[in-house]
Amino acid sequence: MIHALSSGHLATAIPHLAATLGGPVLKAHPIDYVIMGVYFVFVIAIGVITGRGHQTSEDFFLSGRRIPAWITGLAFISANLGALEVMGMSQQGYEYGMMTANYYWIGAIPAMVFMGIAMMPFFYGSKVRSVPEFLKKRYNEGARFINAITFTLFTPAISGISMYALAVVMQDFLGWHFGPSVWVSAAVVLVYTFLGGLTASIYNEVLQFFLIVLGIAPLSIIALVANHGWSHFKKWISTHQLPFLTPDQVAAAASQPGKAVHQLAAGQWLHTFHNTLTQNNPMHITWPGIVLGLGFVLSFSYWCTNFLVVQRALAAKDMNDAQRTPLLAAFPKMIFPFIVILPGVLALPLLPHLFPGNTTVHGHLIPATESFNNVMPLMLARYYPAGLLGLGLTALMASFMSGMAGNVTAFNTVVTYDLYAVFIRPQAPDRHYLWVGRILTVVGVVISVAFAYVVRGQSGIMGYTQTIFGVVNAPLIAVFLLGMFASFTTPAGGLWGLLVGTGTSVTLWIFRSYPGLPLWHHYNNNTTGAFWGAVWAFCAGAGATIVVSLFTKKKTNEEMVGLVYQLTPKPEQDHQLPWWKKPVVLGVLALVLTLLINLWFW
Amino acid sequence: MMDLRLPIGIFFLLVGIILVGYGAVSTHDIPHITQKININLDWGAVLLVFGAGMTFFGWKAEAKARHDKRNSKS
């Protein structure tokens, strides 16, 4: 079928959606507000209870390193489950189908297994309090400063974006005002993180994890019922073409007026690697880009070096629990595509007239509320009755809060330990840092709120901030891997690896953003460009680290004990441990299950 | 440190009770589908069972921790 995206098509499609929903605004019932109220009371109560007895800064920033693995494991994935993740994944499910699950099955689980088995012994064993502090111990103060300052600048901004996204949804769908939405939710997060520090954040993240699962999972079940079962849905999707053009196809159509754009068969929406030998797939990307760019560089950089998630593992009570933190997290992570992506895929026949949002096509503005950007709240509005709707909306709010609290607790730790205690007031009493951490919690929340307002006035900033953060983080893994597994790398090598890797990543991003600039190869969409940009940045960072290390002085072997694989005594195997506590067994099990799921949706 | 299963269990017990109660007295089927399913009642029951299980294990762990603490003092 050749799709003609005509203005007439749009004009009929948008009223159809409004008619389907019975109006654009969702009506919450008093019972829904009761459920939200119960949730608010519980998260604050957890903050109050966990905040009792904080004596040291380590109690506040690292939970006194006494949390069991099942809790840190669930917090490990929950801190990453921001509102943008929950809503964004369902949107991508609609837009790209099950290929989106590659962000989990290729782009998360292998990295989490590697983190638990290979990298955690160095993070936890070296007793560092933050990721930048590891860079200081392995390389030098300059490497710590670069990592800390980048993290400090972007973390509250990302949190503000998440807050903005949620407030807009609440505004569009519930009619809540932007200001109160932002301030009330920020105030709740502030109260419990201020009082309970990382422990309150972790405990609430676990509550929020269960809430997100139990609040959103019924949507997949109901959507399956509405589609008359999985086999009926598969039959439908294998005999239809997509009712819309993807943004990439719209861009291609705009750049070549008059040329027909071919629809993709909707059956491809059920596969993760279908047609990835060519770019004739929903994401328009080939398998090396997915495996190297997403599965290796981007994924390992995020899951193995981002302090937001690493901090949860550092709070574990011993080395075995720290190692099991990302490994235990890998199992629920495996099933998350069925909760957050599947509703988007199942929405294709149910809400067939959603379009790319906030875009102009042939002179017609397609507003975000009627686009697939909001497929998750649209599905909630369509299928959740009063009562269950309260649970679903609370789950969306929980996803925002877990993301924000995660960002704020990581922000206050890095600023206190890696900037304030190094450059402003070293050697202060521990109690002083405890109070600095509390003050920085307030500062982090206030900056997040301010950024939500900045984004509101200048929505283009949102995309830029997220992209730049991803771009800046991408090459980090090269420096970490060489630092942990190659004893010849030197402090100057690590510093230059960071600078060259980040510089390459940012430069490539600038060139990709302005197609007029000369670049040896222009990718045909942002996803492909981002995946390959990460690969080149990794190569540049690794190359610079190696080359500079060959000509500069390395640290002594004694200085690198506990930080580098070859120089660290291997811990004795505890043969008394049951199999489910052995990191290698858990890691292999996670990889085998992931492989089986990948084969299922191949 | 408080056993986390306890607050999580109590929270879902409460939400489960609210949904089951609301499902029992209201007639909200799932909109836009032909099958008659009282989702509030059904899903509320799921939450009740989950909440009860978490509360039970959390309470048991708390009791054990208190017992161990008393023993170590004596």
Describe it:
- The two termini of chain A are 25 Å apart.
- The N terminus of chain A is likely disordered.
- In chain A, the strands form two sheets. Chain A has a two-stranded antiparallel ribbon with strand order 1-2.
- With 602 residues, chain A is an all-alpha fold.
- Chain A has one domain: Sodium/glucose cotransporter (Up-down Bundle), CATH 1.20.1730.10.
- In chain A, helix 9 packs across helix 10 and helix 13 packs across helix 22.
- By secondary structure, chain B is mainly α.
- Chain B has one domain.
- Chain B is 76% helix and 0% strand.
- Chain B has two helices and no strands.
- The longest helix of chain B is centred in the C-terminal third of the chain and has 35 residues.
- The two termini of chain B are 21 Å apart.
- At the A-B interface, helix 2 and helix 10 of A face helix 1 and helix 2 of B.
Poorly predicted regions of chain A = 1-24, 357-366
Mean pLDDT of chain A: 83
CATH fold-level name of chain A: Sodium/glucose cotransporter
Structural shape of chain A: globular
Number of strands of chain A: 4
Biggest sheet record of chain B: none
Poorly predicted regions of chain B: none
Number of separate domains of chain B: 1
Structural class by sheet pairing and helices of chain B: mainly alpha
Which of globular, elongated, flat, extended, rod-shaped describes the shape of chain B?
Answer: rod-shaped
Please give the oligomerization state of what you see: heterodimer
Number of helices of chain B: 2
Q: What is the N-to-C succession of helices and strands of chain A?
A: EHHHHHHHHHHHHEHHHEEHHHHHHHH
CATH class category of chain A:
Mainly Alpha
Strand content of chain A: under 5%
CATH architecture of chain A: Up-down Bundle
Q: How far apart lie the N and C ends of chain A?
A: 25 Å
Key features?
heterodimer, A: 602 residues, mainly alpha, Sodium/glucose cotransporter, two-stranded antiparallel sheet, B: 74 residues
